[in-house]
Amino acid sequence: MEAGTTTAPPSAALSEGQGARFRRLANRYGLFVVLLALPVWYGIKDLTGPEHDLSRLANNLFSGLSNGSIIALVAIGYTLVYGIIELINFAHGDVFMIGSFTASQFWASVLGITLATGTAGVIGGILVSLVVAMVVCGGLNVMIERVAYRPLRNAPKLAPLITAVGMSFVLQNVGLLWLGGSPAGVDDLVHAQQEVTTIAGVSIQRADLLAFVVTIPLVITMVTFINTSRLGRAMRATAQDPDAARLMGINVDTTISLTFLIGGMLAGAAGLIYALYQTTIWFFQGFQGGLLAFTAAVMGGIGNLRGAVIGGLIIGCIQQISDNRIGPEWTAAVVFAYLILIMVFRPQGLLGEETREAG
């Protein structure tokens, strides 16, 4: 008996083709719909409301970009470390907290800068404090890698992960002993909320300029270093294949320490900006800021530097819109709802790509 062949009914094949087409369209355009949903919704409300303009939304987005630049600096540290050794350094957020504490205490207690200090003294003190905070946090991050992570380089993945959580608690308690459990005020040296100018209805404040003036040069310098320098090429080679990099004569341990150094320095710079931006610091800010920064790194594509920056800026905008329109108590839920939706449409993140398996 000859074997009979069966074919799918035309209606079933048509339905399957339509379903595949819909999934392709959803994967291609669904991400844009998700990202634009919140600003478009409130933009329409502003246009149809009593104000009939988009100035409020524009102010939300601009403030979100300046706030997001701080998140981006911390997120870069997460994504650098993950790209090299595929470890989520949960202590990184608390290194950012130590940066805020170091900078604020240095300019107040060591340099003696107060609200009565002249403009030149304030600018010089902030620059010196920036360097000190970056050096302290970079050195702290290298020490954490050397003491807590390097001995577990060949251990099961769970061991360094739990160690990272433990280091986070250690640094939190350092901050708790340093300044106590209550939020501490920081002198508003730059008059953060003072308006500098208004462009097309967008109010530009000193805090916004501070965030951009510090963040943009640091990010450009870091990207240039990684793309053009010999040590930067060693970092990229180690990220691709540490065993092959070792065979090519690259000192992998030194390269990993350099990665932690750069990530810690950026976290220290973010800590100084945060202290001046918010004028309030406390020991728990590292957990909150680190969680947002880690979310930004995942949203942008963990291991991708540009993705970390874009993810930080997006979260900053979402956070600002939610704080201003929905309520601060809902902001965390809105941010993570965005993360979940983005992961549904693009599991590897906005700019993520396939990475090697850790071995």
Low-confidence stretches: 355-359
CA-based gyration radius: 23 Å
> How many DSSP E strands?
4
Q: What about the largest sheet?
A: 2 strands, antiparallel
Order of helices and strands: HHHHHEEEHHHHEHHH
User: Percent of residues in beta strands?
Assistant: under 5%
Estimate the global geometry from the Cα principal axes. globular
End-to-end gap = 54 Å
- Output mean pLDDT: 87
Strand order in space, largest sheet: 1-4
Instruction: Tell me roughly what share of residues is in helical segments.
Output: over 70%
Question: Please, how many helices?
Answer: 12
Question: What structural category do the secondary elements indicate?
Answer: mainly alpha
Question: Could you characterize the architecture of this molecule?
Answer:
73% of the residues lie in helices and 4% in strands. It has helices spanning 10-48, 55-85, 92-110, 119-149, 158-179, 206-228, 230-240, 242-247, 252-278, 285-300, 305-326, 331-345; strands at residues 184-185, 195-199, 202-205, 280-281. It has a domain at 70-299. The chain is built from 12 helices and 4 strands. It has a two-stranded antiparallel ribbon. Helix 2 (55-85) runs parallel beside helix 6 (206-228) and helix 10 packs across helix 11 (305-326). The protein is mainly α and 359 residues long.
